[in-house]
Amino acid sequence: MSGEHKGGLEDVVVSTSDICLIDGNEGRLVYRGYDVDELVEHSSFEEVVYLLWHGGLPTRKELVAHTRALASTANRRLPPKLLAILRALPRKTTPMEVLRTGVSALSAFDPDAADNSRDATLRKSIRLTAQLPTLVAAWERIRRGKTPVAPDPRLGLAANFLAMMRGARPSPLAVKTFDVGLILHADHEFNASTFAARVTAATLSDVHSAITSAIGALKGPLHGGANEQVMRMVERIKTPVRAEAWIRKALADKARVMGFGHRVYRVEDPRARHLRRLATELGRQTGDTSAVEILDIVARLVSADKHIYPNVDLYSGAAYASMGIPTDAFTPIFAISRVAGWTAHVMEQHANNRLIRPRSEYTGSTHLAYVPLDRR
Ligand code: COA
To answer: What DSSP state is assigned to residue 10?
Structure first.
């Protein structure tokens, strides 16, 4: 790398956008002008989806119509042939692989698949946002040898997802917590998966292709996969009394501790604060606060030692685990929410498109003489 660029496109501004602002020094996250702290307090995930797609808060009438569209069985249900594809997959297939495959396959059943107009992309975005929870929950049931639970149009997205996953009505606190988790993950500017979506959309490819790209990028442990790794760490630590020794050894070994650090935030990620509070409340309700206690000890020691702070992935897993969600479904849940932001970015990209095609600084040889095969 030459001295001019730091690698990883750090601090490189590739485009303007009206969707999301991250103030990494103040620890603020803003969607379309509204602070997430306000949205967490007053809004629902469905309303935030409207905000991201349309650029402003809905009227009551608009919100009712939008929520109804996201909840309708026509939009939430999976085509029976897609369920047959899921059933044909090996049971060991991870939920993230299933999501990537499922979203790609859904385009084959979508009546608007080839239409990239704003109206068609909006219809497809509604369907994708409605279908992703059904897909994740259906796989959870299928891999356990159970029948998928049909979506319930009377329930909001959070309650319906939890009901489809567990086959039982979730508690109001679980629904509220899950909904806030969805709001907090809905968008995050030009993160790796969103950028992947925009790069794909910028070739004038369709929204299903863009979301499939995004899911592939989200899967990695440096991005959405971090919340699963945090929970694996909690499982290895086992009890709060073991946490200090465990993390001191990890720090001495120069290990990368998942759930900490961020390319943009220089202070604590504002999302981590909300998720910590909710994970604590849920832990109290279920009578097991040990995961949060372990994470608090880890957070104190890592922050003091490395001056890096908790990110969104540190406490989200503890909250999901309290709801009985298996660890390998945490990243798909991230996708259930982030699809709102990804699709908003695809629409913004298409509205003012230019092919995204950067350059590399070539550092290889330039004038090698070709050596015939039998003389090498
Ligand atoms: N644990 C230990 N050290 C960390 C760290 C972590 N989680 N995150 C950053 N660091 C350290 C690096 O070792 C590096 O130190 P050095 O300069 O002494 O080598 C320095 O902080 C900068 O790290 P770098 O990897 O260059 O930062 P980045 O901007 O490329 O990476 C992340 C950002 C998010 C990929 C990185 O912080 C990370 O890997 N975090 C863990 C994964 C995670 O939680 N991802 C979810 C993000 S929301």
So the answer is: T
Alpha-carbon distances, residue 162 vs 119, 155, 179, 234, 289 (angstroms):
30, 10, 10, 23, 21
pTM: 0.94
- Domains annotated for the chain, with CATH where assigned, are 60-169+182-220+330-351 (1.10.580.10)
| Residue recorded with tokens 């999901």 | 320
6's tokens: 């730091």
Q: b or e along 67-77 (b: 16 or more beta carbons within 10 Å of the residue's beta carbon)? A: bebbbeeebbb
Residue with the nearest Cα to atom 47 of ligand 1?
223
User: 135: closest CA among 97, 172, 171, 170?
Assistant: 97
Q: What is the pLDDT of residues 320-363, one digit of tens each?
A: 999 999 999 999 999 999 999 999 999 999 999 999 999 999 99
Residue nearest to atom 9 of ligand 1 (CA): 261
Active site (annotated) includes residue 187: no
- Given ligand 1 and candidates 1, 185, 188, 222, which is best to mutate, with the most ligand atoms within 8 Å of its CB? 222
**Helix extents (H) in the chain:** 36-42, 45-54, 60-71, 73-76, 80-88, 95-106, 118-143, 157-166, 172-185, 192-201, 207-218, 226-237, 240-252, 270-286, 290-306, 313-322, 330-351
On the CB side of 313, how many CA atoms lie within 13 Å of its CA? 27
Q: What is the CA radius of gyration of the chain?
A: 22
Nearest to 178 by CA among 191, 163, 165, 162: 162
Q: Per DSSP, what are the bridge partners of residue 23? A: 28
